[in-house]
Amino acid sequence: MRIVLAQLNYHIGNFSGNLEAMKNAIAKAKSLKGDIICFSELSTCGYPAVDFLEFRDFIHRSMNVVNELAKESYGIGIAVGSPTVNSDPAGKDLFNSAFFLSEGKVIHIANKGLLPNYDIFDEYRYFEPAKEFHTFEFLGKRIAITICEDLWNVDNINPLYDLCPMDQMIQEKPDLMLNLSASPFSFEHTQDRLNTIRNNALRYKIPIFYCNCYGAQTDIVFDGGSLVVAADGSIYDEMPYFEECIRSYTLSKILPNGINTEQKKEKENLIYRALVLGIKDYFHKMKFKSAILGLSGGIDSALTAVLAADALGPENVVGLIMPSQYSSEGSVEDAKALAKNLGIRYEMLEIKEVFNSYEKLLNPWFQNLPSNVTEENIQARIRGMLLMAFSNKFNHILLNTTNKSEMAVGYGTMYGDLCGGLAVLADVYKTEVYKLAAYVNREKIRIPANSIEKPPSAELRPGQKDSDSLPEYSILDPILYQYIEKRKGPNELIEQGYNEELVLRILKMVNKAEFKRYQSPPVIRVSYKAFGSGRRLPIEGNYLY
Amino acid sequence: MRIVLAQLNYHIGNFSGNLEAMKNAIAKAKSLKGDIICFSELSTCGYPAVDFLEFRDFIHRSMNVVNELAKESYGIGIAVGSPTVNSDPAGKDLFNSAFFLSEGKVIHIANKGLLPNYDIFDEYRYFEPAKEFHTFEFLGKRIAITICEDLWNVDNINPLYDLCPMDQMIQEKPDLMLNLSASPFSFEHTQDRLNTIRNNALRYKIPIFYCNCYGAQTDIVFDGGSLVVAADGSIYDEMPYFEECIRSYTLSKILPNGINTEQKKEKENLIYRALVLGIKDYFHKMKFKSAILGLSGGIDSALTAVLAADALGPENVVGLIMPSQYSSEGSVEDAKALAKNLGIRYEMLEIKEVFNSYEKLLNPWFQNLPSNVTEENIQARIRGMLLMAFSNKFNHILLNTTNKSEMAVGYGTMYGDLCGGLAVLADVYKTEVYKLAAYVNREKIRIPANSIEKPPSAELRPGQKDSDSLPEYSILDPILYQYIEKRKGPNELIEQGYNEELVLRILKMVNKAEFKRYQSPPVIRVSYKAFGSGRRLPIEGNYLY
Q1: For position A325, which CATH number holds?
Q2: Is the pLDDT of residue A257 over 90?
Q3: Which of A162, A217, A421 sits opposite B538 (nearest CB)?
Q4: Model-level pTM greater than 0.95?
Q5: CA–CA separation, B164 vs A169, rounded Å?
Q6: What ipTM score was computed for the predicted complex, to two decimals?
Q7: Least CA distance to B490: which residue of chain A?
């Protein structure tokens, strides 16, 4: 028996596009003499379809894709994921299902039992969990189908769920397992996932064919890395990350004691590729071609420009250099050098005159008051507005260049430097931005050394440095990480040895900035706790204020 | 036995404030010779605390409030809601609990069984559902405690849940039921809630004391309206809406065949009060005093100004009138007349010169291109920026004046008229804005007749009318309502008799505007499907495009 895994890029709600991609993969699988082709979770409609799932029309169109695929199933079994209607009036209206199609018919339906409902996941909002799980026979082999999270309740000392689908199915002595997943990237998750699949193989002692999708859906990036694991947990194949892959495997060759082909995973490489794919798919799926961004001469905008150039081609990236009277000469030169290094177009706009026209207009009210953050914000907002004007006039998408440290403490101007269609770096701490800059500079200098080496500054008043209002990033970032990713509260942080006053100051800054993050652009998620749908906090919550 | 219901306003994470409010209510209950005082769901920490619940420190502080309240429980039984730790390692980490305290001790704990996980609710993200439910005895009476949703699986032909907590507890023959709720307002929900409580009384044939909170938490408004219902479903008392209320009831007087005291509910009155409370609490809880908004002379900004003046006092509202060359003379006069009617301060700023400075700066790139939406957006953004400059300099919060029809179809400029800390009208369709305008004008003219009667226009180009780009609101709004609130898809709408081309055009506009709503301010929720956390849709979902 030959099994083909198809690691494809789906688009939410684009039923015809998803159908076409799967039909093409089926044709390829047939040419590879595959007996089975396996797609990923909810591949008919894309993942996460969120509240589109509440529309009967949407479910109907998803099922139409299943019906169309059934017509392709002569001579090949097809495993495909789709939402389906729960015919029992009790419980949620839908199941998260996998169909097995053969010779024009549905020969098996598996419904997902373990529904993730944490971080970015809201599956219990839509789906009823299945409670019974069965295998089926195909071409003389007994097959167990599981869906993503169904495998994640193994060897867990703090189980989220009170059942384990494979514990039921293993009673029926399956010869192999197919798992259809939509498992998003975070740099820690890639290895966790591999370990989990391996642990399942070890527990159930059967080969596992694990099919993940790849591709970005605005903020969430699916990384692929589909797996074929032998019954002893050795990795028979690990598909590439962040790209399409269709491969055929002969079941009888997936044997214990095989060569372990596990890939090395390097953090900066993974994050770099996730961000590039995040930009690329956003533009592709939104049908936009070119990006614009402000180039300040600093490291964040420089790194964002590199990622955009690599995702879209340098010919599709435009940088605006918008100095004010507070910009250093070096900043403009660094920005120009970057544009030259990357081969992207840049335009230069001095914001002084527009700033003066605002000052003049506001003078009757502001004249006797000291200059403060108001005037700094005006500068940042003029830049945001000029970028949006170019974006509107020339059909560019504005990329936001804020990093996670700034986004966390609210070091940014709403409607100013917090503008943008997509926030590229807002899940990357400043200290990690430096590492990514080194990574993209590893073969040749792309980001000018000066952008990397000079002290970070917003350049909104004379001699300003980030460190005037913030702790050094090397001190700030570890505390942010413990608070945001690790959910550690003030006492736990102080017990870890962090300075009490500093901890309370930082946590207060983070909590008070919630109102800014509420209106920020979607953030490409690369950690396991990104700003956005996976982190939900009240704007007016008076906690740690 | 005398039972006191305390309908209070809680603040998320403000443990000392919540404790103090409850202690004051206990003192009052003791003065009323109450035997029991009942607070509402999760009253220690406020609702919805969302991901703050993932911090052990937060749960610990909530439990401290319970412990402090226990010290007040000599001579009075106290029912209070708090998150608690689930000691079973399996399942979610927390329960949504109600404590009954007496003589310094916890004498009963009830855990919530039915966890809403739809619309704005995410309870299954945090809480394990209870599966067993028991009553307890206090002062010779057997008491059943339920928490909010626990009562909502009665007489339901499409039950979301497969259990019903009171069906278990009724076996123990309770004399009465206490329900602790945090049930948010929507104008349909108020009557549904009363009917549901009544149906519970009829089903279980015992009196019900239903205690809701009131107060706004940014976007979500709790309306109070706590209830005492006799065993035959007659309404013994219905507390006022949108205000604090502490009342004592003698159990032996809550008899069948009593006078039904159900209040009349008038839609515009309810929505008006919800919006006023929404503004008031946002400012109060964020510790801001004064509001600013742009006054265009149109009906949306006029109605927002009325609501702000009623919430904060006219002395705490400032309007900016910011005409351009496209503003009609009438618009400025209408805006001034409104400010005079309300007694609010206004300032006038002509945006022409700033606009010219942008045109001059952009001229090298834009000179040979036709003027288009780019220039319209620049005007809207200059206004947004001036409002933010005043907001920053004078510590005002900017109120957004966009209505739900505009927000739905994306008729608004990001970082322009979509700016603001709070969107006051973005859950009110334009046709309903007219009804609310009539409501606030019912006793005397506050919104000038001209603002109500003239055709809606953004006044961003000569002679512009909303109807140039949108269907008439009387046609648009019913389709939006069916799509947004009723979740009807294109075929269902066409079957209802709506024009196919129009339906597809409108649905496409709504879906394509998701990227704008993602970055919009929080919206005060008054319908059962508002933009915000209760409606989650993908930005790049290619559905009905």
Answers
A1: 3.40.50.620
A2: no
A3: A217
A4: yes
A5: 31
A6: 0.96
A7: A57
